[in-house]
Amino acid sequence: MKIKKILHEPLFYLLPLLLATYLVISFRLEISDVKATRNNGTENIKLPYSIDMKHNETLLVSFNLSVKNNKLAKFNIIPDDCIQEIWVNGKKIPLDGIKGLCDYGNGAYFDFSKYVQSGLNQFELRIINSGGGLGGLHIETAHSGFASLSFMHYIFVLLFLLSFALILKKLKFGFFATFFVLLGISIRLIYFSYTGPTERVYDMSWGHSIYTNMIIENKQIPKTDECWSCNHPPLYYLMSAGIKSFFDKVNPYHSFRALQQISMLFSFASLAFGVALLYRLFNGSRFAMLSSLLFVLWPGFVITAPRIGNDVPFYFGALMCMLFTQMWWNKRKNKHLLLAFLGAGIAIIFKSTGFVILGVLFAVFVCCIFYFERLPQFKMIVLIFIITIFSISISQHRIIADFSRNETPTLVSVRDLPSELYIKTHLGSFIYFDMKDYLMEPYTNTRSNSGGRQYFWNFFMKSTLFGEYRVWNSNFGNTLASALNVLNLTFFLLIFYGILNTKMQNLPSLLFFVALIASLIFTRAYYSASPLQDFRYIAPILVPMLFFAINGANALQNSRLRFGAYLSMLIFSILSFLFIVGQAI
Fold first, then answer.
1. What values do phi and psi take at 32, rounded to 5?
2. pLDDT band at 449 (very low <50, low <70, confident <90, very high)
């Protein structure tokens, strides 16, 4: 009977088909016989290639590209630091109008479908190292929006959405809850289609990649002070090292993209936990739909999705903990408590900020015992103790190692920060709000006071939306960003009003909100560095933020003001959608 049930399960057929489609779109480039010529000498190399070169020295790189379908010949070429000429099958390719020819960070997007043939093709690239120092070349699978997608990409997306919908159905998600999760997945896939490993991902993620590469090269976990991100718990980097090692062997041009895709999967799961939590907080009312719409389209939460690093897995564990903490508070079922501690354990394993999540869970646990006068079963307490000790041990074993070497451990990466990132810390930094700067400058910057980095709330509120960079630097993009900033200000006013009208049943959300904000304020005050007030560090706070904002709107006595608040939230979700999708068009 079990075998018959499995054979009647649609996922039994969908998942292998989904995997097969993924393999087709992931292994579409076969580059071989790569050679580099410089200083009248030629050598066999592997990409990515980097070597010390003189100022204005040229580098000639040649390789063979094998494709089964010429329409798949779309990829990003990242030079260090300027592409001068490209020849395909003996024909010189025009470079006029192509952006990024001298962009050694993100490179230039090329569609070679008109110049290649099915089968083997010969490529030659002439690169000049106009800046001196390191020079070289890297090639990645394309990430230039809709233009880089093939028919198989669309097939894969349809299969993935269908599979995820079936999984949500098994988890008893309703129609609208499923719709919002799939909407969130769709907009993240759109954003992913034009976002490379280092583009628009809050701060630079290369520090995390270096940590991963050190594990691959040295076959061991580095010490805390050996790299910028080496203070972080190692599990994410061990997992990334395994994934990257695999792709480095079979398709090195997809390895960093694969790490982005792992983050995307964690983000999709986080969407499901967040929407489920909002539906429970609002008891499935129409406000659950409004809050879910805002949650899945919130720009800052979308932007973090493809980020290479341990942040997104942390969001997964934190939101899992927040969901089951609320369910345990409402129903006091032991399985919910166990799953809440499991979520907190996952959060700790991936990022030290998880200790804030675990601390709130313990606080709720103690409050529940005194408020409801009910103690969980002894075996449940033992399981909780085991999960907690196990997760802390995995997460912070390097702290123990540092103590054993008489070294000072650290939970925050502040070593060798550039001096321009440090700012003055005083009481006014956390009280004063620069309204003029907030309204006139849509984005913020960690290296310039323009954008409000010296004031906690200015920086924090903008970073909830965009991060530490200009996301869409055009007149229309800046206008959208400014409008979102104005609407975001109304959100925060409603949040504080909603907190004043909170009820005891919402205690977990209140404690998570207060604790996460307090942790960010403490970090910013203690280290006095502008990046350390970034929303990215506490992104799961978005759920209680939306909950209190809508409760604040509900508490407004004036019906017109209340309607205006709801309308502004709906407009915010529409502008968020335009802001994210508009960059891919």
1. -140, 170
2. confident
Of residues 255, 236, 224, the one with CA closest to residue 29: 255
What are the helix (H) ranges across 171-254? Answer: 175-193, 206-218, 235-250
Q: Which segments of 424-557 are extended strands (E)?
A: none
User: What pLDDT band is residue 466 in, cutting at 50, 70 and 90?
Assistant: confident
DSSP line for 381-406: HHHHHHHHHHHHHHHSHHHHHHHHTT
* Helix (H/G/I), strand (E/B), else coil: 291: helix
Q: Average of pLDDT values for 274-280?
A: 97
Q: What is the rounded CA–CA span in Å between residue 553 and residue 97?
A: 49
Cis peptide bond N-terminal to 81, omega within 30: yes
In angstroms, what CA-CA distances link 559 with 72, 190, 550, 565? 56, 38, 14, 10
Angle made by CA atoms 168, 172, 176, in degrees to the nearest 5 = 70
Contact 523, 412 (CB under 8 A): yes
Q: Tell me: cis bond preceding 376? Omega within 30 of 0 counts.
A: no
pTM over 0.85? The answer is yes
User: What residues contact 132, with CB distance under 8 A and at least 6 apart?
Assistant: 53, 54, 55
Whole-angstrom CA distances from 198 to 204, 345, 477, 533 are 6, 29, 20, 21
What b-and-e string marks burial along 466-498, b requiring 16 or more CB atoms within 10 Å of the CB?
Answer: bbbbbbbeeeebbebbbbbbebbbbbbebbebb
C-alpha distances in Å from residue 333, one per residue of 92, 184, 327, 536: 69, 30, 8, 32
Where are the strands (E) in 226-315, listed by range?
Answer: none
The burial of 337, by beta-carbon neighbours within 10 Å (0-12 exposed, 13-18 middle, 19 or more buried), is given as buried
Could you tell me the two tokens for 535?
């929303």
33 backbone dihedrals φ, ψ, rounded to 5°: 50, 55
Residue 110 and residue 29 in contact, taking contact as beta carbons nearer than 8 Å:
no
DSSP output for 59-123? EEEEEEEEESSGGG-EEEEEEESEEEEEEETTEEPP-TT-TTTT-TTT-EEEE-TTT--SEEEEE
Characterize 541-567 residue by residue with b for buried, 16 or more Cβ atoms within 10 angstroms of its Cβ, and e for exposed.
Answer: bbbbbbbbbbbbbbebeeeeeeeebbe
